[in-house]
Write a structure and sequence with these properties.
The protein is built from 10 helices and no strands. It is mainly α.
Length: 149
Protein backbone atom coordinates (compact mmCIF):
# COMPACT_ATOMS: atom_id res chain seq x y z
CA UNK A 1 0.00 0.00 0.00
CA UNK A 2 1.40 3.36 -0.99
CA UNK A 3 1.87 6.31 1.31
CA UNK A 4 -0.67 8.37 -0.64
CA UNK A 5 -3.32 5.69 -0.18
CA UNK A 6 -2.64 5.51 3.55
CA UNK A 7 -2.86 9.30 3.76
CA UNK A 8 -6.15 9.24 1.85
CA UNK A 9 -7.79 6.72 4.17
CA UNK A 10 -6.43 8.22 7.39
CA UNK A 11 -6.95 11.84 6.43
CA UNK A 12 -3.35 12.61 7.39
CA UNK A 13 -0.46 14.15 5.46
CA UNK A 14 1.91 12.00 3.45
CA UNK A 15 4.84 13.50 5.36
CA UNK A 16 3.35 12.33 8.66
CA UNK A 17 2.61 8.90 7.21
CA UNK A 18 6.18 8.63 5.92
CA UNK A 19 7.54 9.64 9.30
CA UNK A 20 5.55 6.95 11.07
CA UNK A 21 6.32 4.29 8.46
CA UNK A 22 10.01 4.97 9.03
CA UNK A 23 9.70 4.08 12.69
CA UNK A 24 9.65 0.58 14.10
CA UNK A 25 6.37 -0.92 15.22
CA UNK A 26 6.96 -0.27 18.91
CA UNK A 27 7.83 3.37 18.20
CA UNK A 28 4.67 3.86 16.14
CA UNK A 29 2.51 2.46 18.93
CA UNK A 30 4.23 4.81 21.41
CA UNK A 31 4.04 7.87 19.15
CA UNK A 32 1.69 10.57 20.53
CA UNK A 33 0.46 11.50 17.03
CA UNK A 34 -0.45 7.89 16.31
CA UNK A 35 -2.13 7.51 19.70
CA UNK A 36 -4.26 10.59 18.94
CA UNK A 37 -5.31 9.09 15.60
CA UNK A 38 -6.47 5.95 17.41
CA UNK A 39 -8.36 8.00 20.01
CA UNK A 40 -10.05 10.08 17.31
CA UNK A 41 -11.78 7.09 15.69
CA UNK A 42 -15.54 6.92 16.19
CA UNK A 43 -15.84 3.72 18.21
CA UNK A 44 -19.59 4.19 18.64
CA UNK A 45 -20.19 4.30 14.88
CA UNK A 46 -17.87 1.34 14.33
CA UNK A 47 -19.72 -0.68 16.95
CA UNK A 48 -23.12 0.23 15.48
CA UNK A 49 -22.07 -0.84 11.98
CA UNK A 50 -20.12 -3.92 13.08
CA UNK A 51 -22.67 -6.48 11.77
CA UNK A 52 -22.51 -4.97 8.28
CA UNK A 53 -18.69 -4.95 8.31
CA UNK A 54 -18.68 -8.59 9.44
CA UNK A 55 -20.87 -9.54 6.46
CA UNK A 56 -18.36 -7.93 4.09
CA UNK A 57 -15.43 -9.61 5.82
CA UNK A 58 -17.27 -12.94 5.58
CA UNK A 59 -17.23 -12.69 1.80
CA UNK A 60 -13.68 -11.35 1.57
CA UNK A 61 -11.69 -13.50 3.99
CA UNK A 62 -11.76 -16.84 2.11
CA UNK A 63 -9.93 -15.33 -0.89
CA UNK A 64 -7.51 -13.47 1.40
CA UNK A 65 -6.75 -16.68 3.30
CA UNK A 66 -6.24 -18.57 0.03
CA UNK A 67 -3.82 -15.87 -1.16
CA UNK A 68 -1.82 -16.13 2.08
CA UNK A 69 -1.55 -19.87 1.59
CA UNK A 70 -0.74 -19.76 -2.12
CA UNK A 71 1.61 -16.78 -2.16
CA UNK A 72 3.24 -16.98 1.25
CA UNK A 73 2.79 -20.57 2.39
CA UNK A 74 0.85 -19.47 5.44
CA UNK A 75 -1.59 -22.11 6.48
CA UNK A 76 -3.55 -22.62 9.63
CA UNK A 77 -6.63 -21.26 11.22
CA UNK A 78 -7.65 -18.06 9.47
CA UNK A 79 -9.23 -15.19 11.28
CA UNK A 80 -13.01 -15.24 11.01
CA UNK A 81 -15.12 -12.27 9.97
CA UNK A 82 -16.53 -12.23 13.50
CA UNK A 83 -13.03 -12.05 15.01
CA UNK A 84 -11.77 -9.43 12.55
CA UNK A 85 -14.65 -7.09 13.26
CA UNK A 86 -14.47 -7.66 16.99
CA UNK A 87 -10.74 -7.11 17.33
CA UNK A 88 -10.95 -3.83 15.46
CA UNK A 89 -13.65 -2.46 17.77
CA UNK A 90 -12.17 -4.16 20.82
CA UNK A 91 -8.69 -2.73 20.42
CA UNK A 92 -10.17 0.74 20.01
CA UNK A 93 -12.00 0.33 23.31
CA UNK A 94 -8.70 -0.71 24.94
CA UNK A 95 -6.09 1.38 23.10
CA UNK A 96 -3.39 0.55 25.64
CA UNK A 97 -3.51 -3.02 24.28
CA UNK A 98 -3.30 -2.07 20.61
CA UNK A 99 0.37 -3.06 20.36
CA UNK A 100 -0.79 -6.68 20.69
CA UNK A 101 -1.77 -6.48 17.01
CA UNK A 102 1.91 -6.80 16.09
CA UNK A 103 2.13 -10.01 18.10
CA UNK A 104 -1.08 -11.40 16.57
CA UNK A 105 0.19 -10.74 13.04
CA UNK A 106 3.83 -11.75 13.57
CA UNK A 107 3.70 -14.69 11.15
CA UNK A 108 2.15 -12.71 8.30
CA UNK A 109 4.76 -11.05 6.06
CA UNK A 110 4.54 -7.30 5.70
CA UNK A 111 4.19 -7.73 1.93
CA UNK A 112 1.03 -9.82 2.45
CA UNK A 113 -0.48 -7.08 4.59
CA UNK A 114 0.48 -4.41 2.05
CA UNK A 115 -1.18 -6.44 -0.71
CA UNK A 116 -4.28 -7.40 1.24
CA UNK A 117 -5.19 -4.11 2.87
CA UNK A 118 -6.34 -2.39 -0.34
CA UNK A 119 -8.73 -5.29 -1.00
CA UNK A 120 -10.20 -4.97 2.48
CA UNK A 121 -10.55 -1.21 2.15
CA UNK A 122 -12.18 -1.56 -1.27
CA UNK A 123 -14.62 -4.17 0.04
CA UNK A 124 -15.65 -1.77 2.82
CA UNK A 125 -16.96 0.58 0.10
CA UNK A 126 -20.09 -1.60 0.20
CA UNK A 127 -21.03 -0.36 3.66
CA UNK A 128 -24.12 1.84 3.45
CA UNK A 129 -23.15 3.62 6.67
CA UNK A 130 -19.77 4.09 8.33
CA UNK A 131 -17.61 2.99 5.40
CA UNK A 132 -15.22 5.93 5.73
CA UNK A 133 -14.74 5.31 9.45
CA UNK A 134 -14.17 1.57 8.91
CA UNK A 135 -11.62 2.29 6.19
CA UNK A 136 -9.88 4.84 8.39
CA UNK A 137 -9.88 2.55 11.43
CA UNK A 138 -8.53 -0.43 9.47
CA UNK A 139 -5.77 1.72 7.96
CA UNK A 140 -4.82 3.34 11.27
CA UNK A 141 -4.65 -0.03 13.03
CA UNK A 142 -2.61 -1.58 10.22
CA UNK A 143 -0.14 1.32 9.97
CA UNK A 144 2.30 -0.01 12.60
CA UNK A 145 2.31 -3.40 10.86
CA UNK A 146 3.34 -1.66 7.63
CA UNK A 147 6.14 0.30 9.30
CA UNK A 148 9.84 -0.50 9.44
CA UNK A 149 10.62 -3.43 11.70
Amino acid sequence: MKTGEIAHYTGQSTSEINRLLGLGQAAVYADPVYKNWVKSLDVTLLHQTLPMARAIYERLLPSFTARLKDSYGIDGSPMSAFTLGNWLVGFLQYPDQINQLAHLHRRIPKAALEEGLPDILQALEELPNGKREWQKAMTVLMLPLLSAN
